[in-house]
């Protein structure tokens, strides 16, 4: 079969299977990135304003996650995550369940993303000029509204480049889920390649798909950053 | 809620205020009283505690001890000076328009958005009403055509006038100014002072920390000279500036003349 036939949508082409893998990768990346953001917001505020115990725990979390290679973390977290849920279920007298690779993938990658997001957001919050927050406090704005309407939009411009990086890392880290047997893009590609022996065709195709995600993401984040920077005087060299 | 029967009810009252930062005793028992329509000017050397005193009035700094009441309402404080009731602090802050040395306009919002932010989102004023009020105020401070501009693209004088309009847009009972012209280039000071003078002329209650002695003498109804966290001398402006009693105040006035 020629390269194009191999990539055809219908069987015996692998196009549909690759697209399904791509979709799963993107969805997991989206889920992990969102979970990472939530953890990051909590983590950043905890590190900045939390008590000593909170801060120590968060320091342990971000240090470990950032020190250990992602592949190892994913293996550890994946098996720890699935087996601890099952242990809990057994302890409460329920049946063991098969945890979906999708949910586990999001949880595991989300925990990894969360550590990096904590640092990105902590730096961004610190970059908000104190006077901007003080002005809102002086006018009687309640703390949650202040965080949402002043701190958040102000820190966004500083956070976007870091967050864009995290998102790209999230899309690529989904490939690591192949090691735990989850049929995302990379695993599907490997299956296709080993079945047909057309390694070059399939890995090129997968590479191009990852590249497309990256280019599209860069465009979208560029838009968001331009919006977040509204009101700022353009710095030279930007 | 203005009591029109009484001639001039008390707007701000501070009694025996102390404030320490760690071991650094900055305010050592200062008191201040501003009735409606009063313009109280606080003068003094750098580091004498002027800003700290002003910032304690709306609890941007937590007093170490003392009593503060706004519009006749005592602020509930713990024995250590910290506010007992966050809601009360927020409500009282809404009645005190604060203007900072560094303007502190929100840079991600246009001038008009800056003005209506708190009225709409905190005070729940209907949006069109807030916008109408904001436009009137902008016209008044000479920024009618700047409503769509972002603060970073305006001069310091324009930013400070917008910041004053933002504070007024909450319809506060009193205004607090912390050296509103100290960050400005000399040629921009006049336009801001003119706006503040206008407010004084219309009978606004205000507490004003300033280095502009001439201006303080012209607009203030009462002047407080702060030295090392204590009130060294106070009185009507003509007395304080015309016939200072304390040696330190004489020195100070000479040094800033
Ligand atoms: N947040 C703070 N932490 C520690 N010290 C402070 C703080 N704010 C002010 N101070 C100190 O309090 C003193 C009075 O400051 P301030 O009220 O700003 O003086 P002024 O406004 O009269 O120049 C200064 O010695 C200053 O260093
Ligand atoms: Mg000061």
Task: Give the structure's gist in a few sentences.
Chain A is mainly α and 238 residues long.
Bound ligand species: adenosine-5'-diphosphate, magnesium ion
Residue-averaged pLDDT of chain B: 94
List low-pLDDT spans of chain B: none
H-E string of chain A: HHHHHHHHH
Which blocks of ≥5 consecutive residues of chain A have pLDDT under 50?
none
CATH architecture of chain A: Orthogonal Bundle
The count of strands of chain A amounts to 0
Q: What gross morphology of chain A would you assign?
A: flat
Give the biggest beta sheet of chain B: 6 strands, mixed
N→C terminal distance of chain B: 42 Å
Distance between the termini of chain A: 49 Å
- Indicate the CATH class of the largest domain in chain B: Alpha Beta
Domain unit count of chain A: 1
- Name the structural class of chain B: alpha/beta
Please report the two chains with the greatest interface, counting residues with C-beta closer than 8 angstroms to the partner's C-beta: A-B, 22 and 33 residues
By CATH, the superfamily of chain A comes out as MetI-like
**Rg of chain B, alpha carbons:** 18 Å
CATH homologous superfamily (4th level) name of the largest domain in chain B: P-loop containing nucleotide triphosphate hydrolases
Report on this model:
The complex is a heterodimer of chains A (238) and B (257). Chain A is an all-alpha fold and 238 residues long. In chain A, helix 2 packs antiparallel against helix 3, helix 5 packs across helix 7 and helix 6 runs antiparallel to helix 7. With 257 residues, chain B is α/β, with parallel strands linked by helices. Chain B folds into two domains: 180 residues, Rossmann fold (3-Layer(aba) Sandwich); 67 residues, no CATH class. Helix content of chain B is 36%, strand content 25%. Chain B has nine helices and ten strands. In chain B, strand 7, helix 6 and strand 8 form a beta-alpha-beta unit. The structure holds adenosine-5'-diphosphate (ADP) and magnesium ion (MG). The site of adenosine-5'-diphosphate has 11 residues of chain B, from strand 2 and helix 1.
